[in-house]
Amino acid sequence: MATFTPTLASFSLVGKTAVITGGARGLGLAMSKALALSGANLAIVDLNKDEAAKQAKTISSIFQQKHPNQQVPKVTAHYADVSSKSDVDTSISEVLAEHAKITNLITCAGFCENRDAISFPSHRVKRMLGVNVEGTYYYATGIAKHMIDQQIAGNMVFIGSISGSIVNVPQRQALYNASKAAVRHLAASLAVEWASHGIRVNCLSPGYMLTKIAMQENPGLKAEWESKIPLKKMGAPEELMGTVAFLSSDASAYITGQEIRVDGGYTVC
Ligand SMILES: NC(=O)c1ccc[n+]([C@@H]2O[C@H](COP(=O)([O-])OP(=O)(O)OC[C@H]3O[C@@H](n4cnc5c(N)ncnc54)[C@H](O)[C@@H]3O)[C@@H](O)[C@H]2O)c1
Fold it and tell me: Is residue 269 classed as helix, strand or coil in its secondary structure?
């Protein structure tokens, strides 16, 4: 017999349709699972559409296994380079052709590059700001337009980073830090601008998370980071699932313009 695990109904995402950028891999993939397993229909938008399509199938079958007699959320995969406004607009139209409405957005596509500021090539400067900042902006504004036109009281969660509030050491990543500060303040600013439309916007800022990419880029730093984290370990991607589901749900109905840091206590020291 299935275990009875009561929880507040306001935590459920049944009836919602979420778009997640960068949802095919890493932290975005864990968040994609959190949204669909909470009942939301989902559109995964990623540079790597093949991986997004593969993960969409996997997520649907995980849901089916967990809830054999329930309606399986519709999970679709789409291509966009989020730094391209025309890609973003095309992908939003594609999502709307398959899902009819969008109630939630999670912007997770982004990347970090560790280099000293003086030697950072200008084409990489443009790329980083293009993906991390413009990508968030294009997606948020494109989807807010849809929400306002359709009178949808929508919800957005931008994935920032603790690097948007503190300066990480020893790695040199000034532009990444600045890009994530921009993401955090964009969330606060758009939350105020769109509050009268019922659209909430918050920023989820992960700390040091244990992903393959983070470890490839910073080999050897795990022990040093962990020694400085009060919970004494780097975060697992799955440890973001509850926070993204909470912020995307009506359980957080009176929270907007805020940043929640999921960092094992790192930034309070
Ligand atoms: N990994 C960490 O420790 C950490 C910590 C704090 C914040 N973050 C943030 O979390 C987010 C995800 O990080 P991750 O470590 O899971 O990265 P990742 O590289 O593992 O995954 C990123 C995903 O985004 C997609 N993507 C990248 N650029 C894109 C673009 N231009 N258009 C569309 N899709 C694109 C990739 O294809 C990939 O599927 C990033 O915004 C990152 O800055 C990560």
Answer: coil
Find out whether 152 and 96 touch, Cβ atoms under 8 Å: no
Alpha carbon distance 233, 208 (integer Å)? 9
Query: For 235, which DSSP code?
Result: B
Q: Which helix (H) or strand (E) holds 77?
A: strand 75-79
Query: What spatial distance separates the first Cα and last Cα of the chain, rounded to whole Å?
Result: 45
Query: What is the H or E stretch that residue 57 is in?
Result: helix 49-66
Q: Domain coordinates of the chain in residue numbers? A: 14-263
Query: How far is the CA of 41 from the CAs of 74, 82, 196, 234, in angstroms?
Result: 5, 21, 26, 30
How many Å lie between the centroid of ligand 1 and the Cα of residue 110?
A: 4
Q: What is the distance in A from the centroid of ligand 1 to the CA of 158?
A: 12
Which amino acid, residue 263? D
Counting runs of H as helices and runs of E as strands, what totals does the chain give? 9, 7
61 an active-site residue? no
List the structure tokens of 63: 């849901």
- Give me the residues paired with residue 158 across strands: 107, 203
Question: Minimal CA–CA distance to 190: which of 128, 135, 256, 251?
Answer: 256
- For residue range 36-75, what is the model confidence (pLDDT) as tens digits? 999 999 999 999 999 999 999 999 999 999 999 999 999 9
Candidates 138, 139, 176, 266; catalytic one: 176
Active-site residue, 176 included: yes
Fold that domain 14-263 belongs to in CATH: Rossmann fold (3.40.50)
- Give yes or no for residue 202 CB within 6 A of ligand 1: no
Which CA distances in Å does 64 have to 53, 78, 177, 261?
17, 22, 40, 32
- Which pLDDT score is estimated for 2? 64
165 is catalytic: no
